[in-house]
Amino acid sequence: MKLILSILFLPAIVFAHPISQGSLDIELLNGKLHVRARVPLEEVLVANAFGAGNAGSIGDAWKEHGRYFLRHFQIRADGRELAGALTGVTEAGANHIVYDLDYPLSYNPDRLELRQNLLNEFLYAPGNPWEATFVVQMREGGRLRHEGLLLTSKQALTVANAATGQERRRIFGEYLRHGVTHILEGYDHLLFITALVLATVTLWDLIKVVTAFTLAHTITLSLSVLDIIRLSSAVVEPMIAGSIVFVALSNIIWPQRSRGWVRLATAFFFGLFHGLGFAGGLLDAMEGMAGIAIGAAIVAFSIGVELGHQLVVLPLFCGLKLTRLIRSDATSRDRLSLSTMRIGSVFICAAGTVYLVAALK
């Protein structure tokens, strides 16, 4: 039955980037804390396909995952853990499920602490687990108190009475950090940029190729923010995985063509799809946030993405330059450079193929 349910879900969603992004709407009511969780269907599919559940129907699968969600999501009020209950399961369009959770609470707490480790036990690819992230907003007495907060499995999210300025700085810092970790833990993006860097010889080559890639993904990320262009993950994720394989194969088969304007065009073209991958479901999760808050979050996230890139690109480039200096004559340096590029690209191509298979499932 698990296989049948997975097949039924596959037309709507695709195994894509290993970060599932949803939203949490928390409201303090008389006598309870109400949580409305908007969860992407891919999260339900992953848990159903790889977990130990055995739902007999699609409706049962939703409820089973709702109980799984409840077990992996914790709330503490002033240090005291709350016991919650799943009170509602509804479909929200073609791509999301909404869970209503109620936590009895007899007073208005000064501080809430949220934790979750959803999907962490399942692997997207070797060494790369799935992860669920949530954009959080909180209401009290019908009034919006907090919005745009980010909850990941890496650390708890503390929600307290904060001044507006503190809240904005906090949101900026959270999305900045999320952008950095998105790159440092997003092995697909790292493989692509590494394949590009392997073919660079001079600092000017590096600047040009990184600029082309940055310009491209900034364009599509910005267009996604403005809701001008959106592409299905069924297109974006295979293109990202395919970009890794294509660039790596180019380094192996046509090493002399892996530089110059051809490489710049390649970096720019595939960078457009990587930008859509960066946006992912983050924008859907931000739905309903104020425009200024969304803009600040995306700017911080984009800066974080670039910082993450530089943390990888600069040490790698410097390491390759030092390696070339081992040889004294130009011919030996060129031969060593070519061998390093080809050998590294073989491993990148193999890893990219794993991601491509996962993205096409």
Properties at a glance:
4-stranded antiparallel sheet, alpha+beta, elongated, 361 residues, disordered N terminus, 2 domains, 55% helix, 6-stranded mixed sheet
How is the topology of this model organized?
Elements: H1 2-9, E1 19-29, E2 32-40, H2 41-50, H3 58-71, E3 73-77, E4 80-81, E5 85-92, E6 96-104, E7 111-116, E8 123-125, E9 128-129, E10 131-140, E11 143-151, E12 157-160, H4 164-184, H5 187-198, H6 203-225, H7 233-253, H8 261-279, H9 282-285, H10 291-324, H11 330-360
Parallel strand pairs: 1-10
Antiparallel strand pairs: 1-2, 2-6, 3-4, 3-7, 5-6, 7-12, 8-9, 10-11
Helix pairs in contact: 1-2, 4-10, 5-7, 5-10, 5-11, 6-8, 6-10, 7-8, 7-11
Question: What features would you describe in this structure?
Answer:
The chain is of the alpha+beta class and 361 residues long. The protein folds into 2 domains: 2-161, no CATH class; 187-360, no CATH class. The protein has 11 helices and 12 strands. The strands form 3 sheets. A 6-stranded mixed beta sheet has the order 5-6-2-1-10-11, sandwiched between helices. It has a 4-stranded antiparallel beta sheet with strand order 4-3-7-12. It has a two-stranded antiparallel sheet with strand order 8-9. Strand 1 (19-29) and strand 2 (32-40) form a beta hairpin. The longest helix is centred in the last third of the chain and has 34 residues, at 291-324. The chain starts with a helix and ends with a helix. The model is unreliable at 1-16 (pLDDT under 50).
